Amino acid sequence: MTLDEVGAAALPEHLAIMGALHTNADDAIGEGTLLLLGPHEPGFWSHFQSSPEWNDAAPDPMDRWSRRVISGLATALGGQAFFPFGDTLHPFMRWAIRSARAWSSPVHLLVHDRAGLMISFRGALLLPRLMTLPPPPPKPCDTCTDRPCTTACPAGALTPEGYSLDACHSFLDLPKGGSCLSDVCAVRRSCPISASYGRIEAQSAYHMERFHP
Fold first, then answer.
1. Looking at residue 27, what DSSP letter applies?
2. Which residues pair with 169 in a beta bridge?
3. CA separation (Å) from 112 to 5, 103, 137, 143?
4. pTM higher than 0.90
């Protein structure tokens, strides 16, 4: 099985392979190829909203959807599923950087070659074989001369010097913080790669509400 074949299996659920790497002993999850799965845009949000998890009014619909869908893919492909939520925390950021498709941005958020600063992961598949991996793409920040992410935060909470969680939440409590809640974080929005990714505002607003209820 190739990466393209796994990608084709995930696509009906509007998931895409956002990174792939060969595991090592430090991962302690078994030997093979780990595929990081994230939203395939455009269209992920409308697909998710048609799911039973979104419509049953129970808590944590996206996490429950992710667990059902990605676990099902793992079973169908003969692998194991791992998630960035739940009782056992896995190092998705470290895995993403090792996949050579994500890097630390100038503001220290993870940046992805296709999703920009909108990168997120719904889970990962471990397949028990060493698959052929593509060559890494160039880091988008290397050709971004303006670096708008470094000055985009209206609260001054997210800069190259670091991140102030308190300043971020304090700003979101103010009326002028409304655009960050409804449209998503201004820093994430400022990335030119993010702008081409296709994530809609309603999806971002859902995640911001979870971050700042």
1. G
2. none
3. 22, 7, 10, 14
4. yes
Question: To the nearest 10°, the Cα dihedral for 188, 48, 7, 124?
Answer: 70
Q: In whole angstroms, how far apart are CA 53 and each of 2, 16, 50, 56, 204?
A: 30, 20, 9, 6, 18
- For the CA atoms of 184, 83, 114, 196, the dihedral, rounded to the nearest 10 degrees, stands at -30
The maximal CA–CA distance of the chain, rounded, in angstroms, is 52
Reported as a single tens digit per residue, the pLDDT across 77-104 is 999 999 999 988 899 999 999 999 999 9
pLDDT digits (tens, 9 = 90+) for 1-33: 899 999 999 999 999 999 999 999 999 999 999
At residue 37, does pLDDT exceed 90?
A: yes
3-state secondary structure at position 102: strand
Residue 71, classed as helix, strand or coil, is helix
β-strand partners of 148 = none
Tell me the C-alpha distance between 98 and 109, whole Å. Answer: 15
